[in-house]
Model the fold of this input.
Amino acid sequence: MKNCLTIFLTILILLTNELTSQENKKQTSANRTPTAPLIDGLLNDAAWEGLPALTDFVQYTPYNGDPSKQKTKAFVCYDDNALYVGAIMYDTAPDSIMKELGPRDSQGQTDTEFFTVHLNPHNDGINSVYFSVSACGVQTDFTLSPQGTNNNWDAVWDSEVSINDSGWIAEIRIPYSALRIPEKSLQDWGFNMFRRINRHDEWSSWSYVSNELDQWWVHIGEMKGFENISPPLRLSITPYLSTYAEKNTKGNWGYSYNAGADLKYGISESFTLDLTLVPDFGHVQSDDEELNLSPYEIHYDERRQFFTEGSELFNKANLFYSRRIGQKPVGFSDVEDQLKANEKITDNPVETQLINATKLSGRTTGGLGVGLLNAMTANTYATVRNTVAGNEREIRTQHFTNYNVSVLDQTFANNSFISLVNTNVWRNNYLANVTGTEFRFMDEANAYSLEGTAAFSQVHDDNDSEYGEKLSVRAGKVAGEFQYNYRMSLITDTYDQNDLGYLRRNNELNNSLRFQYSIFKPFGIFLRMNNSINVQYQRLFKPSVFTSLRIHYEFFSRFKNNYTFSMHASLSPIAERDYYETRTDNRYVKLFKYFHNCFHLRTDRTQPFYVAAGGGFTSSYDYKFDSNNWSVYFEPSYRFSDKFNLGLEFWRIEYKDQPGYVDKDSDLDKIYFG
Done:
């Protein structure tokens, strides 16, 4: 009842408060070119002549809203194949342009300047793509959506750069095959451009972006008047053949091969069909090995290109975890229990073979996103051998399995949306089905928001069925100097989305209240300052018992000399009860009351020599163990030139008497910690 009252009051505030004003966003006209420019980083083609120059970039940091310290001039045009962007980054000291080399997608990880194009073809303020090129020609691309940033997304596009006595030039070609564009004769796109100047520690943009917005990407300019775009046929077929040679511990060699194909077909400007047949992901970077001592499953990033592309649509409501497809067979660990006398395991595959996967995704002119994904994995068998008789037999570790994901996502004005998602897994007599929704509604100024998710799970195994629910709602003010929000999250003890999704744990009821006060304008020795406090109260859903109360404070400041200082502190005034670490229903371990504090200091990164340093400690009290811990670090760096930087890291971390789960004896009703 109290939760409902709080939500009602928050919504009332949202509806009755006066809307904050929003800065006017810049607009420019889209200009069609009869001849595509040559992408060579020179901007001397006829296509660039006569185009209006996009100038007057303004700072996002460090002085939000002030003119950029260096002049930038950009030009944009398009044809039926691609969008073309050319930019001249003027610099009064071109010998100071940073151009440290790095791998692809290394923006923010190296000392180099960047030029970035921000596109939102459906102009919904929700789903954006970014194409960035460094002063040494390294590309970075990613997507941004309510589900977060997808850095694993890699598109095929062209760029070239050059450096001259006036600064540096970037020339970019973004083909429509890398985008999802509306199907209409006249289009207006969300559009912006960013420039990074390292020695000023400055980010600037063509259309002003306020640092008072929690969701800064909704501040985007517009490019109006794309007319009658008729992209050519988008069709690519990529066959493959892979071979493997493996040597076992006895010195025997084994050989295998795989063959298949990938197909991509542009059904229309907005919808794309992807198909992979008998795929082999042997070239994909493998996961780092981790020793997992926690009661929770490790979450791994998806690196398979088929599943990373367009993932922002399929990840609505966080119900889809693509690593489930092709994962370890469900009966992998049961093979040893099925061994007969004199038998041993000779082969037990750790992955199921993906037969095929099909994906259809796109968005209509009315803002309706549609996503359909289906995948199939083959029967998987372990092989065991009788060491006396010499015969072999197979044990099935997973039946043929079908995976399906369906998504409908409707966008509205003011960067609002609502989605409907269904995931389904069918395997022999086993069926797991989850249906959910995600929504976000914002006011015209993007200052207040009401957002949340809800889902219902069904698991049917032979004659046994189980149902569960989850609900999460958050409402509050997300812009301005003073921000606040309230969040309630409920997950029943029977909710289960882990057949095709990922959930660390269920059976919880959480309430949190957060307040933030920021000063965005320079004052005294400060450029900006942020303060926030968050109070979180947690219980189990069933039985309804207390688990934790935490108070968390954060502070961040940036000084006019480009130094930064931050700290955070946490307090747990009541001993926490961890019902998950015991791995046993209705049993908990009583943890300590504690106080935690840490700080971080960084000197001016624009100087050749700079330092990052910090430390922290956790002090427990009212507990059997003196489980205090502390850490310090010191990281000096020196920039020898615009291409070479040397850094060292020194760390010291000490943990003392950290109790953890060891094992349990069900017969003796004992749980052992050490």
The longest strand covers residues 253-266. The radius of gyration is 28 Å. Residues 1-22 have pLDDT under 50 and may be disordered.
